[in-house]
Amino acid sequence: MASWFKGKRKDGFRTEAGSDDSYGSNDSYDMAGEGAVTGGGIEDVLRPVGEPTVELRPVAAAEPAPEVAPADGFDEFDADGMAGAAEVYEQTVADRRALVALCLYAHDRARSSGVAERIEEGLAGVGVTALRPEGERFDPAVHEAGGTVGTEDESLDGMVAETEVVGFSDRGHLLRAPIVTVYTSRATTA
Asked: In Å, how far are 9, 11, 23, 59 from 3, measured between CA atoms?
């Protein structure tokens, strides 16, 4: 034990007399489980435990609850129960939206690619997928053009060259359009 500790320990469990260490002595504990007050040494911890003192008896099966008839013509749910369930559902959806928005905020500010990937994996686990449309035809309905890059290859004209900012969709619903760079033919730009 370190010399700076007030009550140096004599053994593994006790402190010297006069120490104000409240956890110092285990003298009052029955560590062997047989009613004997021990000094808290390792021998007491390793001593075999005697027979269990509690008698185990089988528990009788509970009687089924009596059936209660619906009141006032309501078959299964009352009006308050349905309204309460709708409120809980609406709150759950609002909480999910807030958490997804917070994750997107954290993703955009992640300095480590590993952290960004882990956030994307977590979002994918709840149905939010990252959109990186490289190689796809540019579609202004789902992509935002951030810039263009010229190309000599006519087949690449109008295709997405790279994703500048990752987009996200939630189970097919577009949350944020990816910002992309689009190939343009040098023949049409000249």
From this structure: 10, 15, 17, 55
Backbone angles phi, psi at 57, to 5 degrees: -125, 145
| Helix (H/G/I), strand (E/B), else coil: 48 | coil
Using DSSP's 3-state secondary structure scheme, residue 164 falls into: strand
Query: What are the pLDDT digits (tens) for 139-157?
Result: 999 999 999 999 999 999 9
Looking at the structure of the chain, the number of domains it has is 3
- Evaluate whether residue 143 is within a structural domain: yes
Token pair for 127: 């149905």
Q: Which of these, 110, 126, 124, 168, lies nearest to 143 by C-alpha position?
A: 168
Q: pLDDT, tens digit, for every residue of 79-105?
A: 556 678 889 999 999 999 999 999 999
Instruction: Read off the CATH number of the domain in which 160 is found.
Output: 2.30.22.10
Q: Which residues 6+ apart lie within 8 Å of 31 measured at CB?
A: 38, 40, 44, 45
Are the CB atoms for 107 and 121 separated by under 8 Å?
no
| Domain coverage including residue 24 | 7-47
Q: Is the pTM of this model over 0.85?
A: no
From the list 75, 74, 124, the residue with the least C-alpha distance to 104 is 124
Q: Token pair for residue 107?
A: 């993703």
